[in-house]
Amino acid sequence: MSDVADRVKKIVVEHLGVDAEKVTDNANFIDDLGADSLDTVELVMAFEEEFNVEIPDDAAETIVTVGDAIKFLEKNAA
Amino acid sequence: MFDLTGRKALVTGATGGIGGAIARALHQQGAIVTLSGTRRSALEELAASLGERVHIVEANLSDKDSVEALVPAAEAAMDGLDILVNNAGVTRDNLFMRMKDEEWDTVIAVNLTAAFRLSRAAVKGMMRRRHGRIVNIGSVVGSTGNPGQGNYAASKAGLIGMTKALAAEVASRNITVNCVAPGFIESPMTDVLNEKQREGILGTIPMGRLGQGDEIASSVVYLASTEAAYVTGHTLHVNGGMAMF
């Protein structure tokens, strides 16, 4: 597992209060991890802070699974 | 009832007539209070009169950087923020046709845009802590309008709309957002009225007197309390009956 993946999963576990084993690449934030729309906004903001990157609204909309977040941040974070 | 022991509150415009009363009342209910304003000496004087559990963060709300720094500074000083009172306000009265862009811009910046930025910053931590109270101090004029106050009325009406929108967004996180809309209150802002204006105003107030800062402050205490947990998006008019909604 990449360093980015580790950090992403840690943030998801912390913010949503879910078990780490549930946070797989395929896990959908809303359907599988019980997030609501505000949670997803909070997650995006936490990713921005952790990776010091800006995630535009249209990109944020495409991040629906844990894997989506990892892929986006691996590509865009310095 | 209305115990605020250990709650952490930030009050903007704390050296004003109403702001000072709000800070005092929150403090009296047990809250830790950060006083914000532009006049250092007046802030220190108020802090000294309150004693313990008080912090000071100077801020100029017409300056974006100063606004952005305020909530983080208050959170650092108090180790959190439970209650934000957007009280600071200015007037630049002028008849509409004579109103300068600068008079419009200043009033909107301090009364509305600063409240937006401070609320945006405060809500972040409140979401995480799953608790928060935001109280915006509006004005009866935001609902009734007032000649010579196109800018002020717009800013205060804007606060009411903003209050409702934000309240809907964050309600699920136990954060309430409400507005207290004072009528005419004894304060430096109304001290400038001459005797004739004052009489004219009193004629429109069924209660026959101006309000006191304390009477606004007690409404803020209520909305900041646990007891008001189910009240959100509301505008509480405190105006001696001069306008009823």
Tell me what the structure shows.
The complex is a heterodimer of chains A (78) and B (245). Chain A is mainly α and 78 residues long. Chain A is built from four helices and no strands. Chain A has helices spanning 3-16, 37-51, 57-62, 66-76. The two termini of chain A are 18 Å apart. The relative contact order of chain A is 0.20. The model of chain A has no long low-confidence stretch (mean pLDDT 93). With 245 residues, chain B is α/β, with parallel strands linked by helices. Chain B has nine helices and seven strands, in the order βαβαβαβαβααβαααβ. Chain B has helices spanning 17-28, 40-50, 64-78, 101-129, 141-144, 150-170, 188-191, 195-202, 213-224; strands at residues 8-11, 32-37, 54-58, 83-86, 132-137, 175-182, 235-238. A seven-stranded parallel β-sheet of chain B has the order 3-2-1-4-5-6-7, with helices on both faces. Chain B is globular, with a radius of gyration of 17 Å. Chain A binds chain B through residues 36, 38, 42, 45, and chain B through 124, 127-128, 169-170, 172-173.
Query: Strand count, sense and closure of the main sheet of chain A?
Result: none
Question: Low-confidence runs of chain B (pLDDT<50, min 5 residues)?
Answer: none
Quaternary structure classification: heterodimer
Helix and strand run of chain B = EHEHEHEHEHHEHHHE
Number of helices, counting only DSSP H or I runs of 4 residues or more of chain A: 4
